[in-house]
Amino acid sequence: MNFETLPDELILLICRYLSSSDIIYSLFNLNSRLNRTIFIYRQHVILRLTSYNQFEYLCLNVLPKIGSTIRSLTINTNWTDLIAKRFYFYFGERMKEIFPNIEHLTLVAFSGSELNDYMISISDLIYLKQLTIQDRYNITEEYKQVLFDKILSANNNRLEKIFFNRHSESLSINPINSIVYSNIIQLNVHLEKITDLQCLMKLIPNIHRMNIVIDNQSDDIIINFHEEFILKYLTEFHLESFRRNWIFDEIYSLLKQMPFLQTLSLDLFSQDFRLSNGQHIVPILPINTLQNLNYAIEYEPEVEIESIENIISSWTSTPYPISCLSANGTTQIFLHTIPYNFPYLDINSSYAKRMNKKLGDYSHRIKELLLFNVSTLAETFIAISNCVKIKDLALEIGDEPSEIIEDERKEKENILLPCLNKLHWLSIDGCPPDVHLLKEILIASPNLSLLVIDMKYLLRLFDIEDNQSCLLLLKNRIRNLSIQIEDEAEMNDLIFEKLSKIFIHIRHIIVEIKLTNGLSIENFLLFFFKYFQNHQLISIIVRGCTTEQLRNNPSQWLIDHTHLNTFTNQFQADCDDVEFKIWF
Fold it and tell me: Domain F-box spans what residues (predicted)?
């Protein structure tokens, strides 16, 4: 039996395990039957993690032929930054011609200049109503206002839904801007400061759903939102702002502009007692229309909390059950409605140690879990066990990780992690004392493939005796690796030889070199290619100090100094002041 004799159902089942670009690269135009079978993949195209040669073939031979059938297009430059420039080279001035029926465009990890170019290129696409932008930008403070305006008015003001993810760089609004974007009915955006929200609400009168992130902690201005700008169509509002210190009167004036809300989600930080008290919160809600309230607040008053019990009891007569986690005695609490209905949880590890599955119901929606001020990996296991559906897990180790008390160590290590089938991205910033417990996370995460970690952590793993099972898990699981080097001693032949033997399956690697002596990227590249030249890499990104020679002609430098002199037409290279990129 050959592939073409398989039934359509089995072919589509196989396709579920392949990337979108692999499917159209491998199966398109083999015959008319397969073209019909993969029609859904010709309508919804995702360009992500592709090799240079594969991408060139798609741009030259596939996308021009299927462009009119494409309804949604994703260009994801994560790990392969050069994709954005190369796609624009082929289609930047031909978007209307090649993709006339596109309805949804997603741009992931674009720089500010690339976003600017794409906003110009997507004019006159009559069906394009939805734009999603995720991660990166790297733009100046002055350009944030200009870029946001270009995005809101892109495609000749035809866009109705614009979604930035919560990790995107913040944008701002020119306070004297009087242009009304009546086309926008849904907007998710990360704003620079609260005054930007005040300005934005005047410019989008027809908004139906709005998701706002504000995390500027230095903004001490107290805002009073003006009632004359009533958002009469707004039915869903989400505000995430747990770095800024909110006061009750600001939330009160904000909600008065939204009289017809059906779903309200607030995730705040405050030192104002009233924002932790149910008897103060419930009366300011649009009670006649509100159907769902998701509320979370980290309350950290300037003085010690007199009675946590009184705060909890203030919610008992309301329709909203709450859970209250305390940290550091009675100096701060984390309070939220039950179930915890946000898709993320960013929380101090001191709270996380007190999470209770029965009382908090955290497993419902959390896809991203960030624990900061972590002392040991063991203490994170309670929180991880409460969030079994997470896709992304980030652990930020505190500046002074604590020593492990023996009884405490035994108690915490007895906690078995549940199966984390959906976890694919793990980041550990810092080096805890119990580095060996990484093995437990790896065992529980069969689909983990992306790892962000310090070189210091890896070296600690190498030094542990009888740790082969952990290293074997790393070898078998990790396809994308990001490491940070902070000491010149972390760059030598022995270390790179070990890395090359463990990470034999990596396809994409990012290295951040943070050395005080300004050691150039060239030194790293010479070490790297000495031991990784036989790995099947697709992309390499190195961030650090570059030289003029490297910036002037990065491809020629690679040809002159590495084994790539035999692959001159099979890679792209780019270099600026702080970053070197290779795409194979």
Answer: 1-49
User: Do 524 and 535 share a domain, yes or no?
Assistant: yes
DSSP lists the bridge partners of residue 408 as none
Which of 312, 338, 364 is the C-terminal boundary of a domain? 338
Residue 138 falls inside a structural domain: no
Domain co-membership, 372 together with 519: no
User: For 313-321, which contacts have Cβ atoms below 8 Å and span 24 or more sequence positions?
Assistant: 314/277, 314/278, 314/279, 314/280, 315/278, 316/278, 317/278, 317/279, 318/278, 318/279, 318/281, 318/282, 319/282, 320/278, 320/282, 320/293, 320/295
Work out the number of other CB atoms within 10 angstroms of the CB of residue 8.
12
> pLDDT at position 97, please?
97
Which residue reads 């000749």 in tokens? Answer: 156
Does some domain include residue 488? no
**Cα 86-525-111 angle, rounded to 5 deg:** 35
Q: CA–CA separation, 553 vs 546, rounded Å?
A: 12
Nearest Cα neighbor of 239 from 260, 261, 222 is: 261
- The predicted model gives 279-295 an average pLDDT of 96
Structure confidence at residue 517 as a pLDDT band (50, 70, 90): confident
Contact (Cβ atoms closer than 8 angstroms) between residue 344 and residue 166: yes
Within 13 Å, how many C-alpha atoms sit on residue 18's CB side?
Answer: 16
- Report yes or no on whether pTM surpasses 0.90: yes
Q: What share of the chain is helix, strand, coil (3-state, %, to 5)?
A: 35, 25, 40
Provide the mean pLDDT of the chain.
92
CA distances from 348 to 95, 138, 188, 363 (A): 45, 28, 25, 18
Q: What's the pLDDT score for residue 413?
A: 54
**Residue 459: pLDDT over 60:** yes
> Over the stretch 361-387, which tens digit does the pLDDT of each residue have?
787 789 999 999 999 999 999 999 999
Statement to judge: residues 359 and 457 lie in one domain: yes
Residue 304: the pLDDT is 85
Task: Quote the domain boundaries for residue 67.
Answer: 1-106+122-129+154-169
**Token representation of residue 283:** 């009366």
3-state secondary structure of 208: coil
